[in-house]
Design brief:
Strand content: 35-45%
Distance between the termini: 46 Å
Largest sheet: 9 strands, antiparallel
Order of helices and strands: HEHEEEHEEEEEEEEEEEH
Oligomer: single chain
Helix content: 10-25%
Number of strands: 15
Structural class: alpha+beta
Shape: elongated
Strand order of the largest sheet: 1-9-6-5-2-3-4-8-7
C-alpha cells in the first residue's frame, strides 16, 4: 500500500488552494447547473444544485428539500464531502458548517471551501483572454537574441501561460528557460516574469503554429494582480455566456 506521504504528494497534484481558482470553479458549477452530490462518512448522499455564492459572507448555498430523508441523513454528520463532474472531470471539496435554512427560501448553507480537488493534472484554473488580439508575451528568442518576439497569450493560470508560436518563427525547444519576459494581459496587468517551456504541442493544421505550455517563474509581486485578472476574466466570460 502507498504510504500516507505518497498519497499526500499524489493529492497535491490536484489540490487547489487559491481562493480565486476555487471561486472560479464554484461559479462554473453554478453556471452549468451541474449536479452536486453531498455525501457523509456513513454513506448517506443527497444530490442537489449549487444555487448561491456569497463571497462577502463566505457562504455557499445548495437547493434543499426538508421532506427528503436523504438530505436529513446527510445533515446528521459533521463530515460531508461535495462531488461534482465538470466536463467529465471530477471536482471534490469538503463541506464545513452545513446547516438547513428553513423558510420561503429553503437552502443548505455552508462555508466557502478553502481547498478543492480537481482531478486533472493542472496546477491552477486556466482562463482564455476575451480578446485574441490583446494579451501578449514579449521576450528575446532564446536561440536568436537579436530577434524580439511578441507571442499571443492563449490561456493563463496562477502558475502558467500558454503562448502561440507561429510556424514562420524559429522553433523553441522544450526545457528552455527564458529569464526576462514581459506579459501584457491588459492595461492594468503587465508583469515582468521568467518562463520555463515545458510542452510544445500542435493545435490544428490550419492554425500554422504550435502551443507553448510555459511555467511562470519570478512572479514576486504579481500574484495579486494575476489573481484579479483571472477572476475578472472568468466573471466576464460567465456574464457573456449567461
Amino acid at each position: 500500500m502507498p504510504t500516507s506521504r505518497a498519497v499526500q504528494e499524489s493529492l497535491d497534484d490536484y489540490r487547489i488552494t487559491a481562493s480565486v481558482d476555487i471561486l472560479a470553479l464554484l461559479e462554473q458549477i453554478q453556471l452549468q447547473r451541474a449536479l452536486v452530490t453531498l455525501s457523509n462518512a456513513e454513506g448517506a448522499s443527497y444530490t442537489t444544485l449549487l444555487c448561491g455564492i456569497d463571497t462577502r459572507l463566505g457562504v455557499i448555498s445548495f437547493g434543499a428539500d426538508g421532506s427528503d430523508d436523504a438530505m436529513q441523513a446527510v445533515l446528521t454528520s459533521d463530515e460531508v464531502v461535495a462531488v461534482v463532474f465538470l466536463d467529465r472531470i471530477k471536482v471534490q471539496f469538503d463541506i464545513d458548517g452545513l446547516v438547513h435554512v428553513r423558510g420561503p427560501d429553503e437552502a443548505l448553507n455552508a462555508r466557502l471551501p478553502q481547498v478543492a480537488f480537481r482531478f486533472q493534472r493542472r496546477s491552477a484554473f486556466r482562463v482564455q483572454p476575451l480578446s485574441s488580439n490583446g494579451p501578449v508575451a514579449e521576450f528575446r528568442h532564446p536561440a536568436m537574441h537579436d530577434m524580439r518576439l511578441s507571442l499571443r497569450v492563449l490561456d493563463v493560470s496562477l502558475s502558467g501561460v500558454a503562448l502561440f508560436l507561429p510556424d514562420n518563427v524559429p522553433a523553441i525547444r522544450s526545457g528552455v528557460r527564458i529569464g526576462q519576459c514581459t506579459i501584457r494581459l491588459d492595461a492594468d496587468t503587465v508583469m515582468d516574469v521568467g518562463l520555463v517551456i515545458h510542452h510544445i504541442t500542435p493545435i490544428h493544421p490550419d492554425t500554422r503554429g504550435v502551443r507553448l505550455g510555459c511555467e511562470l517563474t519570478h512572479l514576486q509581486g504579481h500574484d495579486r494582480s494575476l489573481q484579479h485578472y483571472i477572476h475578472q476574466t472568468q466573471k466576464r466570460r460567465s456574464a457573456l455566456t449567461g
